[in-house]
């Protein structure tokens, strides 16, 4: 009954969990490899007699779950875990129960005492799978947020209200913006001057930086359109735009990128 319960649980997972085995005993490797083959959602991507042999695979971050023996010559499993920077989920295997406490201190998923039964193996994998799904879900959520942010940054235009109409202004067409009390003037490569009733600060917050940067209390410039720096001025389309003292460091930092 336990066997059926665990197998049914694994079948609902949509992605294979990539696993590797590290054990200096060939018999132990064969047993675990057989258990992995019987488990529908596990994919065996590597078998190793020494921990150091697995490093290239682990450094590529292509392993989700590691079955790791503790007692091995040269480098023990516990020592090996401490060397890993981005370690996968780990299930420790050993013939000695006294290592259990040390293993859990290293934040491993589970601890299997040899000889390992298939039922106990499934229980450990079930536990690790739950953690893996949580991590995978969190990573996908963070990736989705990142994609949304990238799309926002890559927006190519914004809308402004002028002369009782909404006008689409493309970022690539903008040279600089001048603030004049209650309104601002947007100057474009098409020799346009677009006047809108808006505070310069509000406009600054809606523009991508870079390329747009506040260089003076009265000016925002597009760094892509700067052709020269003359004294404390930026030259854009034959116009010299002053760089305010409080903005100088930020402007220089963005220009030198």
Query: Can you tell me the number of structural domains?
Result: 2
Task: Give the beta-strand count.
Answer: 15
Biggest sheet, spatial arrangement of strands? 2-1-3-4-5
In whole angstroms, the N-to-C terminal distance is 63 Å
Query: What fold name stands as the CATH topology of the largest domain?
Result: Rossmann fold
Pfam families: LytTR (PF04397), Response_reg (PF00072)
Organism: Thermoflexibacter ruber
GO molecular function: DNA binding; phosphorelay response regulator activity
Modified residues (4-aspartylphosphate): 69
Write structural notes for this entry.
The protein has 257 residues and is α/β, with parallel strands linked by helices. It has two domains: 149 residues, Response regulator (Rossmann fold); 99 residues, Beta Barrel (OB fold (Dihydrolipoamide Acetyltransferase, E2P)). The protein has a five-stranded parallel β-sheet. Strands 10-9-8-12-11 form a five-stranded antiparallel β-sheet. Strand 4, helix 5 and strand 5 form a beta-alpha-beta unit. The longest helix has 36 residues. The N terminus is likely disordered.
Strand and helix layout:
Layout: H1 2-11, E1 17-22, H2 26-38, E2 42-48, H3 55-59, E3 65-69, H4 77-83, E4 89-94, H5 100-105, E5 110-113, H6 118-153, E6 157-162, E7 165-170, E8 174-180, E9 183-188, E10 193-196, H7 200-206, E11 212-216, E12 219-222, E13 228-230, E14 233-236, E15 239-242, H8 248-255
Parallel strand pairs: 1-2, 1-3, 3-4, 4-5
Antiparallel strand pairs: 6-7, 8-9, 8-12, 9-10, 11-12, 13-14, 14-15
Helix pairs in contact: 1-6
């Amino acid at each position: 009954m336990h066997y059926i319960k665990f197998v049914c649980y694994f079948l609902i997972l949509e992605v294979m969990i990539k696993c590797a085995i590290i054990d200096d005993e060939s018999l132990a490797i064969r047993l675990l490899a057989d258990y992995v083959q019987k488990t529908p959602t596990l994919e065996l991507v590597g078998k190793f007699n020494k921990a150091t042999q697995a490093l290239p695979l682990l450094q590529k971050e292509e392993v989700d779950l590691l079955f790791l023996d503790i007692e091995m010559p040269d480098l023990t499993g516990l020592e090996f875990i401490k060397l890993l920077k981005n370690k996968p989920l780990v299930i420790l295997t050993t013939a000695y129960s006294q290592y259990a406490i040390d293993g859990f201190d290293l934040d491993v998923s589970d601890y299997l005492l040899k000889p390992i039964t298939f039922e106990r193996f499934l229980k450990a994998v079930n536990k690790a799978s739950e953690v893996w799904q949580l991590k995978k879900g969190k990573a996908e959520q963070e990736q989705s947020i990142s994609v949304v942010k990238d799309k926002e940054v890559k927006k190519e235009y914004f809308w402004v209200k002028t002369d009782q109409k909404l006008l689409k202004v493309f970022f690539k067409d903008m040279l600089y913006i001048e603030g004049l009390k209650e309104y601002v003037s947007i100057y474009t490569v098409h020799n346009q001057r677009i006047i809108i009733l808006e505070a310069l600060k509000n406009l600054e917050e809606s523009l991508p930086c870079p390329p747009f940067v506040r260089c003076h209390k009265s000016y925002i410039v597009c760094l892509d359109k700067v052709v020269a720096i003359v004294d404390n001025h930026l030259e854009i389309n034959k116009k010299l735009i002053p760089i305010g003292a409080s903005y100088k460091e930020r402007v220089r930092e963005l220009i030198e990128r």
